[in-house]
Amino acid sequence: MAHHHRQIGEVAERTGLSLRTIRYYEEVGLITPSARSQGGFRLYTEEDIARLGVVKAMKPLDFSLDEMRGLLESLDALSDDATDPARRGEALEQLDMFQGAAEERCRALRRQLSIAEGFADQLSSLSTQHKAANTPT
After folding, report:
1. Separation of alpha carbons 96 and 11, rounded Å
2. DSSP 45
3. What is the pLDDT of residues 83-137, one digit of tens each?
4. Are 25 and 53 spatial neighbours (Cβ–Cβ below 8 Å)?
5. 74: phi then psi, degrees, rounded to nearest 5
6. How far is Cα 117 from Cα 125, in angstroms, rounded to an integer?
7. Rounded Cα distance, 57 and 72, in Å
8. Are 7 and 37 in contact (CB under 8 A)?
9. Are 6 and 49 contacting, i.e. CB atoms less than 8 angstroms apart?
């Protein structure tokens, strides 16, 4: 199956990541361009773009680079038909662990959002109260 390759600018536009961020992820080993053009430009496949999507989703949940790398390795093992059953089992366990961690981080973010919304409401009430008190009658 032929892969349609995309240059880094198009990948940046599609993913919402900056060129610098994509290059950084390459530098730290999270992504590797599938090919290079004759002029040396990085070329990415849909699979590469999907990897960037995984990394992008993990970033706001405060997963470390090592954790991102670990999940990507597990996903690679699961998508490779040649992966032995023992490694596939480990990869599935890792996937379940990451799913649980992501769910817990979502719960923590919901709690933080609830606190922030309560604080914003409190400030709004105080603002309204003080504006009313300082309005000449």
Report:
1. 29
2. -
3. 999 999 999 999 999 999 999 999 999 999 999 999 999 999 999 999 888 887 6
4. no
5. -65, -45
6. 12
7. 12
8. yes
9. yes
Please, which residues bridge with residue 44 across strands?
Answer: 6
How many other CB atoms are found less than 10 A from the CB of residue 67?
16
pLDDT, residue 7, reads 92
50 within 8 A of 44, measured Cβ to Cβ? no
Residues 6+ apart with CB under 8 A from 102: 58, 61
Locate all alpha helices (DSSP H) within the chain, ordered by sequence.
8-15, 19-27, 46-58, 65-79, 85-133
**Six-digit token string for 5:** 């390759």
The one-letter amino acid code at 72 reads L
Among candidate residues 77, 18, 93, the one with its CA nearest the CA of residue 52:
18
Residue 63 gets which letter from DSSP? -
* Coil/strand/helix, residue 3: coil
Question: Cβ(16)–Cβ(49) under 8 Å?
Answer: no
pLDDT in tens, 46-75: 999 999 999 999 999 999 999 999 999 999
CA distance 23 to 45: 15
